[in-house]
Amino acid sequence: MDSLDITALHVSVKDKEILHGLTLSVPRGEVHALMGPNGSGKSTLANALMGHPGLTVTQGDIRWKGESLVELSPDERAKRGLFLSFQYPAEIYGVSVTNFLRMAQAARLGNDTGSLTDFHKDLKEQMKLLEIDPSFSKRYLNEGFSGGEKKRHEILQMGVLKPEMAILDETDSGLDIDALKIVARGVNKLRGPERGMLLITHYQRLLNYIVPDRVHVLMNGQIVMSGDKDLALELEKNGYDWVKETTASG
Amino acid sequence: MKKPNNTIDIDTDNYERYGFHTPEKYLVKLPKGLSQQVVAEISEQKQEPDWMRKFRLNALKLFARMPMPTWGADLSGVKFDDIHYYVRPTDRPKQNWDDVPEEIKDTFDKLGIPEAEKKFLAGVGAQYESEVVYHSLQKQWEELGVIFLDTDSALREHPDIFKKYFATVVPPGDNKLSALNSAVWSGGSFIYIPPGVHVTIPLQAYFRINAQNIGQFERTLIIADEGSNVQYVEGCTAPVYSSDSLHAAVVEIIVLKGARMRYTTIQNWSRNVYNLVTKRAFAEEDALVEWVDCNLGSKITMKYPSVFLKGKGARADILSVAYAGEGQHIEAGSKVFHMAPKTTSVVVSKSISRAGGRTSYRGLLRVSPKAAGSKANVRCDALLLDENSQTDTYPYMDVREDDISLGHEATVSKIGDEQLFYLMSRGLSESEATALIVRGFIEPVVKELPMEYAIEMNRLIELQMEGSVG
Ligand SMILES: Nc1ncnc2c1ncn2[C@@H]1O[C@H](COP(=O)(O)OP(=O)(O)OP(=O)(O)O)[C@@H](O)[C@H]1O
Ligand SMILES: [Mg+2]
Questions:
Q1: From CA B430, how far away is CA B97, in angstroms rounded?
Q2: What pLDDT score does A84 carry?
Q3: Domains and CATH numbers, chain A
Q4: pLDDT of amino acid B142
């Protein structure tokens, strides 16, 4: 089965190592949750998977469908089906959401890009599903969007671009309760055998709506614990100190 | 992509698109350089009235006396003696497309002009070399009394209205280049819109230089009579030649009470052209003047579209884009004179510098004591694409009235790594992402262009960006 395989990955930013030999596999068709304290390296992992130019992979490998991604630029990774929903999406002035998405779709799919009519129809449906006001399609990409609006648009982009492996970095942060349900609905809609997801979150709450196949705990740049969905409940109850104690004694 | 070397390939592409030239076939070509004889000969060739001959000769004297501008860009490369001041490819302007010589049509074909015409054009003034060779004007406008001619024909056919307004906005002695233009001008467009007439489709003209060392000195005069409404669009691309050429146009616009005039330019001269243009408009009571000015090409551009807000309630909008790549210095600016109460001006300048290019914004805002209740707002945004490039801003203000509202904002920014990463994570290549950010940056101006020009503009930006990475 196709999978995203991260093996013994070491990642540095400006000579400071953040990830110290991280190993994790997410098969296509499964949803894995990644939890961990602030500063443990979750966003660093997400960015490294997508090929952030400020990060250096010093050791280890990232493979998608058996092919190493380490030397590939972000756009080449996107073309191979990867997608990152950003914790802090950038604002692009003067570029409308619609134009951008059409361009991104063409870049990702090349000759397989569907007709403009289909695109608009799909976009409209996805916006409706995520309860995004149609006026947003003409607005500039993320410009002046509230935190929650940005997150919804990340999921909108995922919905339109239909990646095969999506990494969602704290898509639930900053969402009110209703928005959380709406976004979860959007994510669940995209769940399926053709798509894998790595869901980075601090809150068990999200996992009530998007039930993960696996839960992993990241601490100090390594995966220290993995389990099924109940691990998230355990974490919620006992906190990260419990993880430290358990892993130290185990 | 199939590109072994981006830079070369882009040049080739540009060369193929814009760098071709058709074999020269001139009926009249005066020797290089300026003299009374040359100027008199131009007037003679054109069989002009005596007043115009005197006007030219007088301007030549002024030209000889006046100094070159010492501020702004480096003009030491302009060699006035090394330029042909008059070339005339065909005997007389043609009304009918069928009569236009084949090789000239061929040139326009390569520029895609006939397509554009099909879609948008109703009246066309196409300037090839120093002469307008093709001109058509839609019948309905003629019936409305609209005059849209090349300037030489207008002098012959409408001498009274021509003489009434010619050189009243930009006198020959305004600056050295306007003096030069006044002495040797040839071609350009003349437009008169009668009172109350609204021309809904933009009037368009295409300009092109096509011979070594040929300066282009067109002269455009537009009069929007009371309550009328018109848009004029000029786009120019030029072939690549090795020696420097000069483009010194003068554009005069008179917008009478309650009339609206928009003048849109896309300038893409080849990288050896000195583009030194004097553009000025008079706005009477409640008139609106809009300059939309996009400058991508040339070696050096110095251009400061100006508006004299002479009547109460008049308004000026000056929107500009300047792009400077390797070896280019594009100085685009504006001048606004608030001379009457409750006048308004809005200036938006967007500049992009790349690969050692330099952009400058030079703006003058003058508010007279008669301009109570006026508003002026200036916004200059510069985008630097790399460390070698440069941008600077020279705002001059002379405000002699307290009861006004003034705003001035200037920003300099770079393309952020996080923006690039974000866009690339969605599948755009680095150059596509860069081009998209640049396009977004100039969007407030580009959205004011007619659609085909907006598309062409975005395409040109993409071409420039393809050379910027890798
Ligand atoms: N550009 C950088 N320069 C220096 N340190 C950095 C840089 N980027 C990240 N770090 C450090 O790397 C560590 C991991 O950061 P990261 O953003 O991956 O954490 P996180 O797990 O996503 O945290 P949070 O839950 O707060 O989002 C932190 O200590 C952070 O300060
Ligand atoms: Mg984070």
A1: 44
A2: 98
A3: 3-249 (3.40.50.300)
A4: 80
